[in-house]
TrEMBL record, chain A:
Single GO MF annotation: ER retention sequence binding
Transmembrane feature ranges: 55-77, 121-141, 153-173, 179-202
PROSITE patterns on file: ER_LUMEN_RECEPTOR_1 (PS00951), ER_LUMEN_RECEPTOR_2 (PS00952)
Keywords: Endoplasmic reticulum, ER-Golgi transport, Membrane, Protein transport, Receptor, Transmembrane, Transmembrane helix, Transport
Subcellular location: Endoplasmic reticulum membrane
Name listed for the protein in its UniProt record: ER lumen protein-retaining receptor
Family: Belongs to the ERD2 family.
Topology within the bilayer: Multi-pass membrane protein
Length: 215, 10
């Protein structure tokens, strides 16, 4: 564990807490893409299958449970909660995310570290996480104005993988045989997808204005 | 086995 990875995990946790706060405090999920939340639930379920087979540390196991439980709770809330689900922008959240799942599964079958069930699913989860934010970014552009909590949620979600890139650079230079090129390439793509959001987020922060994404 | 085999990252 190094500081970059720890900061990345904390930033990721903060993004989830902000989303839970928004949904709980405002009893609304307007501006949030259910499809992105479903993709994240799939990412965590596919990646943390080793939760019961490989014990790495208490921290690692606890965080995996928190990520799986929170992502499923958010999906349940947006689908079933009688008050929250009424505020879901169903007509705006139309990204065909099934194509993302199919493409990532196909890529994972072609490119993975070892052709085993767990490794293919792990690579699938890494590829899917890189593109999971797309429905959310499309929804933000369509819904025009972005409320503060939603903007902060997306910002921290983008920042977490940027910390992980620093972690991979650090591990590359400090550990002899560290080679996580699948994670690194996907992590770079993932963070790059946030580039324009970060730009508009910075502009809105500098001008102290409302976050506006160009349609 | 080497660290990079074990998926020690979240």
């Amino acid at each position: 564990m190094n500081i970059f990875r720890f900061l990345g995990d904390m930033t990721h946790l903060i993004s989830i807490l902000i989303l839970l706060l928004k949904i709980y405090a405002t009893k609304s999920c307007s501006g949030i893409s259910l499809k992105t939340q479903e993709l994240y639930a799939l990412v965590f379920l596919a990646r943390y299958l080793d939760l019961f087979t490989d014990f790495i540390s208490v921290y690692n196991s606890v965080m995996k449970v928190v990520f799986i439980a929170s992502s499923l709770a958010i999906v349940w809330c947006m689908r079933r909660h009688r008050v929250v689900r009424r505020s879901y922008d169903k007509e705006l959240d139309t990204f065909r995310h099934y194509f993302l799942v199919a493409a990532c599964l196909a890529l994972a079958l072609l490119v993975q570290e070892k052709f085993t069930f767990l490794e293919v699913l792990w690579a699938f989860s890494i590829y899917l996480e890189a593109v999971a934010i797309l429905p959310q970014l499309v929804l933000l552009q369509r819904s025009g104005n972005v409320d503060n909590l939603t903007g902060q949620y997306v910002f921290f979600l983008g920042a977490y993988r940027a910390f992980y890139i620093l972690n991979w650079i650090y591990r590359y230079f400090t550990e002899t045989h560290f080679s996580r090129w699948i994670s690194c390439v996907s992590g770079l793509v993932q963070t790059a997808l946030y580039a324009d959001f970060f730009y508009y987020y910075f502009i809105s922060w500098k001008n102290n204005s409302k976050l506006q994404l160009p349609a | 086995n080497s660290t990079n085999d074990v998926k020690d990252e979240l």
